[in-house]
Amino acid sequence: MTVGRVIGSDAIEDARRRGRLIVEVMPGDIVTALARDSAERLGLKLVEGPVEMPAPVRTDGNTAMRRVLYRRAPKWQAPSRKPRTARRLAKLALIGAGGVGGNIAHLAAMADMAAEIALIDIAPGMAAAAALDLNHATGITGAGCRCVGGETLDMVAGAEVIVATAGRARSPGMTRADLIDVNARVIRQAGEAIRSEAPNAVVIVVTNPLDEMTVEMLRATGFPRERVLGMAGTLDSSRFRHALARAAGVDPADVEAMTLGSHGEEMAPIPSRATIKGRPLDVFLDPAQIDACVTDAITGGGQVVALKKMGSATIAPAHATIELIDHMRGARTGAVPVSVMLKGEYGIDGVVVGVPTHLGDGGLIKVEELRLTGAETTALQDAAEAIRTRLGL
Ligand SMILES: NC(=O)c1ccc[n+]([C@@H]2O[C@H](COP(=O)([O-])OP(=O)(O)OC[C@H]3O[C@@H](n4cnc5c(N)ncnc54)[C@H](O)[C@@H]3O)[C@@H](O)[C@H]2O)c1
Ligand SMILES: O=C(O)C[C@H](O)C(=O)O
Fold first, then answer.
1. Exposed/middle/buried for 118, CB within 10 Å: 0-12, 13-18, 19+?
2. Which ligand is nearest to the CA of 210?
3. Which of 12, 40, 121, 336 could cysteine-pair with 127, CB 3.0–4.6 Å?
4. Superfamily assignment of 89-230 in CATH?
5. Is 263 a known active-site residue?
6. Lactate/malate dehydrogenase C-terminal domain spans which residues (predicted)?
7. Is the beta carbon of 12 within 6 A of some atom in ligand 1?
8. Eight-class DSSP state of 84
């Protein structure tokens, strides 16, 4: 008589620790549903049946054993989605208190992530009104942060993190690149004030065209690349994940996916690294569906502009900015896409483009160099060349 074993979730925990586990399964053994669930939750891919093994398949009398191989599914460390508790900033400053800046202030205040939030906007009274409005809510929310608002850039003094959203948003029919001249003036002015008033701050640029404005901010502040970050990849990745989740009929939380490249026509969503429930996309979607999700991510911002008629998306961009601040203050971990000045990574030098990064207190810790497909690497390099051309570099 053959006596089977139960392969339980403890074996899967062991797999997680080792990154790889081979379980030899006798006829009659049972792999529990809990074990399968654990493997999925932990991102371990379960492959059953005969697999190519370095060791010979052992036999037990006449009974050949089958093997079950748990492999770690794709390789980049995906960002953690659930914010953990983390360091509170002494001061967060927001240059631009319009649609995106105002929503960032709201999210930051509700999360109590800074002792002080300074809102700055040239529109008379606008930032002061927004700050007062946020402070009025604290009687209900109990949030302990203090919001202040004004019109002068010297209010950035003492800020650890500064987010620049000041400038114009596009209207239907415009590309983000059409904003380059008008917004470069605003970013230069903001950068000069930051250089003199907050020389140790980390700056997150949001103003479009994003990659080009991040270069302008680097020039105006003279800061090292570690302290000038462009926000777009977290937004574009969220749109990509949303599109994939809708197509596959799963929750967005079941999807990991990143977009790199420019925040424009040359955006480069990376299907080869994306997973749904820890498995490659082609387990759930056919190539035409994947292509449609790529297009949806690239055109997502334009879709909002077309519907809104005046201005562009504000809520998802604010969340995507908060995601970066959360990475910096240790509330989230893992690789996160950010537009940074590259120094040879991915074969690109001297231009800002969106790549996977690790962030900490002082901004950029490192650029993570993923192994991409040939087509994905070419898309990333083409994006860099397009940004370089637009900047006349
Ligand atoms: N990177 C991204 O993913 C992303 C996402 C959304 C929006 N954006 C960009 O962010 C920018 C802001 O978008 P929005 O929806 O908040 O626009 P908005 O018009 O609602 O707000 C912009 C604010 O900037 C202020 N401003 C202009 N010049 C200023 C200056 N010199 N100093 C201080 N304040 C100044 C304006 O008074 C206005 O209140 C746009 O360029 C938009 O394209 C980027
Ligand atoms: O699309 C825009 O112009 C705004 C922003 O870049 C976005 O992607 O929502």
1. buried
2. 1
3. 121
4. NAD(P)-binding Rossmann-like Domain (3.40.50.720)
5. yes
6. 234-388
7. no
8. P
